[in-house]
């Protein structure tokens, strides 16, 4: 099973991806992790990426594509994968299509997790962070035992500037602008599957299963 998973920040994509991987015995390929691993192990591609990063530039798409290519050759992805964090743009999606075609692989589906903006804002602005140890809490899903105080070290909990409403709305706007053309790209190829991401984690997972069971 070969999937791409798209969803705005705060939609619960990570949690759902983890459940899907476990159930269908596929691996999550996060481009952030792949990039880090390549740099850490000093691979040729990792060194290439490092040069761009040292110069304060973005790592070019082709370098990331080449890293993904190496990943896809590994035996542990034989059952399939979920790509996470890539593609983010239409040119990246085109490059990925070319790569998969070249490897005689085909995507099964592009899952799109949809959650109304107001819900996302509510969830994301509920994050609080400990000033002492940096542990984060969510007032809705994972509140501290005592209001405003860290469970671990009694440190003061505060709201980081990033977690305030305006930056959150900006992030969601950026996501929407960036992702819309991508969704159109994959819709035109009849690959998108929309999942409503509101409700309980288990219910959302069951909705995803309904779509994925046919690719088993
Ligand atoms: Zn703490």
Q: Could you walk me through the main structural features you see in this protein, from its secondary elements to its overall organization?
A:
- The chain is of the alpha/beta class and 216 residues long.
- The protein is 47% helix and 15% strand.
- It contains 8 helices and 8 strands, in the order E-H-E-H-H-H-E-H-E-H-E-E-E-H-E-H.
- The strands form 2 sheets. It has a 5-stranded parallel sheet, sandwiched between helices.
- Strand 5 and strand 6 form a beta hairpin.
- Helix 3 (44-54) runs antiparallel to helix 4 (61-72).
- The N and C termini lie close together (7 Å).
- The relative contact order is 0.17.
- The mean pLDDT is 94.
- Bound molecules: zinc ion.
Uncertain ranges: none
Question: Rg from C-alpha positions?
Answer: 19 Å
Helix content: 40-55%
Q: What is the arithmetic mean of pLDDT?
A: 94
What is the topology?
Elements: E1 2-6, H1 13-24, E2 27-30, H2 31-40, H3 44-54, H4 61-72, E3 81-84, H5 90-102, E4 109-114, H6 117-124, E5 127-130, E6 136-138, E7 157-158, H7 165-188, E8 192-196, H8 201-212
Parallel strand pairs: 1-3, 1-4, 2-3, 4-8
Antiparallel strand pairs: 5-6, 5-7
Helix pairs in contact: 1-8, 2-3, 2-4, 3-4, 4-5, 6-7
The site of zinc ion has 8 residues, from loops.
